[in-house]
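Q: Hand in one record:
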Amino acid sequence: MKNIFKISALSCLLLLVSCSEEHFDVEPNYLDNPNSVTQSESSFRSLTDGAYDAMKNIFDGDNGNALILADVLADNLILNPQGRLTNTSQYQWSYNGTSGGATALFSDSYFAISRANFVLDNLNKIPYTAFMKNIEAEAKAIRGAMHFEVLRAYSKIPTQDGSASTSMGIPYITVFDPFQKPSRDATVTDSYNKVIADLLFAYNNINTSNGSIGRFNKTSVAALLNRVYLYMGDYANAITYGEYVITNSSSVGARTNFAGIWTDANTDGVLLSLLNGNVNTDNMTVGVCYNQNASGIRSEYNVNYDLFLKYSPTGISDIRKTGYLLTANYAGTPYNHIIKYRTRTGSSTAQVVNVKFIRTAEVYLNTAEAYMKSSTPNAGRALQLLNILRGQRYSPYTPGTETGTALLNAIYSERRLELAFENDRFWTLKRLGLPVNRSAFGPNVDGTGTGPGASIVNLQSSDYRWQLPIPQSEINLNPNMKQNPGY
């Protein structure tokens, strides 16, 4: 794993990018230098699109891929003994710093941050027009988004426990300097405030539209603010930015379109999608962490049967069961496979799809939860938002009438169903201060078969492993980088 603070400026950052609304074709140009690639608005557009392209790295490959990490660490998945046994250390919570950590999230996130910072450091090279103001806003949105990915994984979440806010945060990198050796001297509160500062600048200065679902705009930045404020326990602001999103992008993904969202047939309810559109240049097999096509579907992990049953309420059809899951044999054994990232409509290339970075459905759930936890709760609005989402997932559907604790639990339950296999579950349990309690079901279609395959099946809320280990390779190159307690 290369250390992100020692990368070469010329070999890892500078890009020429050709853009369209379908994809960004990113090609490295190792012969250019900073002055030659920062002389026009079009070059800054290309550099910023290159930063978006780098965001995809956290979803690449099969070991520690962010599309599976939050589910394999939690209770949504069951190890398939006929798979390649990838992510076993994450599944067993046996990861540590010396073995490379649980994921490449740390270095990959900072790599994307370095690209955003290169853009920001060079803004003074040309006149600061409205175009360039928007470029600055996009770059700060990327920087804030990727620091947040690191923050929730490697530090405590403010709502996790009573000591979280004053515990150790992360390095917040605001300049492009391959030789810096940052320390972790900021608290969690300091780090979250810096994320918010970048996102607020972006929200106040970014364009309403930026010409592609693959770029941040005002609504998708508001959605990210809604997410981060929920993690901070700032429910008033979570509501403010959530309602902005709901007003300007109200669709949670219509039931009739829902399955097509995951095959890139449509973008209904998607606020930001990391484009993986050109098989010749991108070809990032983001879905390989779940399964491969090998004389059928060979899954690394299957849906935990306990969760599978929740998609099958008696007499009711849940469209997510069709969009997320497929029951099929592999090597003569039937399994409930996860197909959320299996293939794109019209493509024969497996596991290459766009990454849905944030969707309106999550904003509905975030905002409903925030209304219930607000200093002045609004259960009526929370129920209304929850019913809008449920109305597009279930058929037939009778609007719910829950109140109080039952309503809050219904929001949590719907969150698990809606955002399963989407980089959410472990972080949600973490921010709620809840343990992981896995079922005893096996991987087969009916929950039979070999059990969890882990030395432990429960992770208590006080366990140090909720904070992932900083890779030892990073610490070796930067002695200022403190390891998390327990490793």
User: Anything to note?
Assistant: DSSP finds 17 helices and 14 strands in the chain. The longest strand covers residues 325-330.
